[in-house]
Amino acid sequence: MPKVGMEPVRRQQLIDATIESVAQKGLQATTINSISKNAGMSSGIISHYFGGKQGLIEATVRYLLSNLKDDLISKVDEKTTPTQRLMFIVESNFALVQQRKDTTRTWLSFWAQSMHDKELHRLQNVNSKRLQSNLTVSFKQLMPLAQANLAAELTAAMIDGLWLRAVLSQSDENQFKHSESLAKNYVHSLIKQYGA
Amino acid sequence: MPKVGMEPVRRQQLIDATIESVAQKGLQATTINSISKNAGMSSGIISHYFGGKQGLIEATVRYLLSNLKDDLISKVDEKTTPTQRLMFIVESNFALVQQRKDTTRTWLSFWAQSMHDKELHRLQNVNSKRLQSNLTVSFKQLMPLAQANLAAELTAAMIDGLWLRAVLSQSDENQFKHSESLAKNYVHSLIKQYGA
DNA sequence: TTTTATTAATTGATCGTTCAATAAAGATAA
DNA sequence: TTATCTTTATTGAACGATCAATTAATAAAA
């Protein structure tokens, strides 16, 4: 069986299996066995590649975060207007839903856990700050600084709130699309309200 | 030790101890032992009064929900204006924080778990629907029906989003007060925007 | 004494981790 | 080419810890 250079392949397979298991059964019921079974491998391999369950959990969160980051980068170029960029930010935060339905539940599980896990809380903070910072950069090109900061704070809350309510009510894809559109309308109304 | 009529006392003590344990260590690490230790009792008493751990968890959520419900009822009377009532709704959803600091973390833990637990999901749905329904009733007195429904949906999302971000960033009481004030301002702006 | 309230010890299941064993692939040398 | 050695990849059983739940025993009130 053993081919050379399996490490990156196996690591990704185990991360995918972790997302799957947490989405299906929750973080609480996700065990080394449930993950390795989803991945079609033995339980021992998790410690071999990630040092333990905790290492795999954290690697999974980092993978989700970098996915979110790359998604926005791929959408923006030098010709993007500030308003367009704001719409892309909204889209990115709702996008992971469409490509992988099970990802959304996984996010919320990790967030809840982040209150009691130092490294997860650090990662969550990076993500939260980045959303607000991304929003502020674009709003600043459309309105004075004080208003831009406020608009970014409110937009971040609106995105997270709409997203949270959609996840918790176990919505289908149409509901997520509806929430995304509400968030975009809200950004437009903020620009109209404060825009110079 | 055994006095008669201890049941309601013990039940409440165990619910309080559950909130404390979940806030401190998370739902994942909360065990029959950690709860009974917090309550200063033995572990067997949980099965005696709640049938098991699951029963205690669900009773705790029901307690938090009814607390939230009663808080709003106590604030409103027949002389309350629609706008005042909207402010009270916002206050209620941020109020639990002040009286008991550890309650907020507990909420989020239960919400995350509700995705994988039928009864918890049912309870979460009741709460979510009630917030939106409470908001709609008051908005309807201030604007046309279609706008009132939209305003209620947006306000619910804004409240939850501001609350979630405050909880996750492990904010102090001042930050919660700041979020509460942002939510109130948002309600006022919706009334100004759509108000007849 | 009988009933109610509670404890403390125990049970069996399950958890994450560790580790010796193994299988296959490449490397080396004959 | 063939045989041997080394490395990499992987397994699954065993271990100790910990969990929720149960049970028998105990203490106090009625």
Automatic annotation (TrEMBL), chains A, B:
<dbReference type="GO" id="GO:0019285">
    <property type="term" value="P:glycine betaine biosynthetic process from choline"/>
</dbReference>
<dbReference type="Pfam" id="PF00440">
    <property type="entry name" value="TetR_N"/>
</dbReference>
<feature type="DNA-binding region" description="H-T-H motif">
    <location>
        <begin position="31"/>
        <end position="50"/>
    </location>
</feature>
<comment type="function">
    <text>Repressor involved in choline regulation of the bet genes.</text>
</comment>
<keyword id="KW-0805">Transcription regulation</keyword>
<dbReference type="InterPro" id="IPR009057">
    <property type="entry name" value="Homeodomain-like_sf"/>
</dbReference>
<comment type="pathway">
    <text>Amine and polyamine biosynthesis; betaine biosynthesis via choline pathway [regulation].</text>
</comment>
<dbReference type="Pfam" id="PF13977">
    <property type="entry name" value="TetR_C_6"/>
</dbReference>
<dbReference type="InterPro" id="IPR001647">
    <property type="entry name" value="HTH_TetR"/>
</dbReference>
<feature type="domain" description="HTH tetR-type">
    <location>
        <begin position="8"/>
        <end position="68"/>
    </location>
</feature>
<keyword id="KW-0678">Repressor</keyword>
<dbReference type="GO" id="GO:0045892">
    <property type="term" value="P:negative regulation of DNA-templated transcription"/>
</dbReference>
<dbReference type="GO" id="GO:0003700">
    <property type="term" value="F:DNA-binding transcription factor activity"/>
</dbReference>
<keyword id="KW-0238">DNA-binding</keyword>
<dbReference type="InterPro" id="IPR050624">
    <property type="entry name" value="HTH-type_Tx_Regulator"/>
</dbReference>
<dbReference type="InterPro" id="IPR036271">
    <property type="entry name" value="Tet_transcr_reg_TetR-rel_C_sf"/>
</dbReference>
<comment type="function">
    <text>Repressor involved in the biosynthesis of the osmoprotectant glycine betaine. It represses transcription of the choline transporter BetT and the genes of BetAB involved in the synthesis of glycine betaine.</text>
</comment>
<keyword id="KW-0804">Transcription</keyword>
<dbReference type="GO" id="GO:0003677">
    <property type="term" value="F:DNA binding"/>
</dbReference>
<dbReference type="InterPro" id="IPR017757">
    <property type="entry name" value="Tscrpt_rep_BetI"/>
</dbReference>
<dbReference type="InterPro" id="IPR039538">
    <property type="entry name" value="BetI_C"/>
</dbReference>
<protein>
    <recommendedName>
        <fullName>HTH-type transcriptional regulator BetI</fullName>
    </recommendedName>
</protein>
